[in-house]
Amino acid sequence: MSQIINNNLFEEQNQIPTQMGFIPFPTNLITFPSLGCNNQSLKALSSIASSLTSESADSTSNLTQTLLSSANLQKPSREYLTPSFGGTQFLSLHRSSVNPWAILGGVSDCLNDSSKRSGVDHDHKLGVSSMKMKKMKGRKKVREPRFCFKTLSTDLDVLDDGYKWRKYGQKVVKNTQHPRSYYRCTQENCRVKKRVERLAEDPRMVITTYEGRHAHTPSNDDLHDSQTQSHHFLW
DNA sequence: CGCATTTGACCAGCGC
DNA sequence: GCGCTGGTCAAATGCG
After folding, report:
1. Can you point out the beta strands (E) in A130-226?
2. Does the nearest atom of strand B lie within 7 Å of A24's Cβ?
3. How far is Cα A144 from Cα A75, in angstroms, rounded to an integer?
4. Are A146 and A130 in contact (CB under 8 A)?
5. Over chain A, what is the mean pLDDT?
6. Superkingdom of the source (predicted)?
7. Contact (Cβ atoms closer than 8 angstroms) between residue A180 and residue A195
8. CA A192 to CA A187: how far, in whole Å?
9. How far is A69 from A73, CA to CA, in rounded Å?
10. pLDDT digits 0-9 by tens, A115-152
11. Cβ A215 to strand B below 7 Å
12. Per-residue model confidence as pLDDT tens digits over A126-135
């Protein structure tokens, strides 16, 4: 655990997160090369990232600042990446800089049209039936903004980010021995999804991908505590 | 018994 | 057109 994980490793694995949505999506790599943090700060950061808006983080540098300032963190120094932190470490973050699918069709247009044509409102699209899926055939797919976390964890797969998630699927991805899990926010009217998978090359690495933005505050009571506590971290 | 998870089936998109 | 792959659905199953 004391090994410093550098940028090169993530670059090598870059095809993992960029495969989302069938097409590579441009990402700004936000890396904290020697950042180590404990579970509480990780929780706070993941929560912040999953609820970020494009308005609050329009660029890589802004996002970095937003993350760090929101968690009341300053860029840590190498010395804090020590085995004593153990458990989970926040390593790096990917953010999609553009939404290629949205560019193709227009997010709101597609959503509105598909809802009107299928006769369902947005709230019911998550439970779309096969017939409805057929009706949606030919519509351009839309992807919400995505954030990818890469963490090091030997025990936990799912980060506790303060939101409640319901697992709706699991899939074995080609050339990997570990299944990819699909989660959906349980909050009504919230269409945020996340996926969790382990790197085939290094099962200790967990890739957590958030898609979309929460339209509500975290429902987990623990989050407030962790965020409060994050203000007292000694970096 | 109710809710969450599992898992096989189905579908869309992509490459050849 | 066809096969492959990832994403999602929904019935079955598990669990508290």
Report:
1. 146-152, 165-172, 179-185, 193-198, 205-211
2. no
3. 28
4. no
5. 53
6. Eukaryota
7. yes
8. 9
9. 6
10. 333 333 333 333 344 444 443 444 445 556 667 767 77
11. no
12. 334 444 444 3
pLDDT tens for A179-219 read 899 999 888 778 888 888 888 777 777 888 888 777 777 66
Nucleotide with C1' nearest the A139 CA: B12
Rounded Cα–Cα distance for residues A155 and A208 (Å): 14
| Model confidence band, residue A50 (pLDDT cutoffs 50, 70, 90) | low
Torsions phi, psi for A217 (to 5 deg): -90, 160
* CA of A168, C1' of C13: distance in angstroms: 14
Is strand B within 7 Å of residue A180 (CB)?
no
How would you class A234 by CB atoms within 10 Å of its CB: exposed for 0-12, middle for 13-18, buried for 19 or more?
exposed
Decide if pLDDT at A222 tops 60: no
According to DSSP, the residues that pair with A27 across neighbouring strands are: A96
H runs (alpha helix) in A81-213: 100-105, 107-118, 130-135
Q: How far is the CA of A29 from the C1' of C12 (A)?
A: 42
Which ranges constitute the DSSP H helices of chain A? 7-12, 15-18, 39-50, 60-70, 100-105, 107-118, 130-135, 221-230
Query: CB closer than 7 A to strand C: which residues?
Result: A 19-22, 125-130, 133, 168-171, 173-174, 180, 182, 193, 195
Residues composing chain A: 235
Average pLDDT score over residue span A5-27: 31
* Predicted model pTM: 0.62
Q: When comparing pLDDT for A108 and A175, which is higher? A: A175
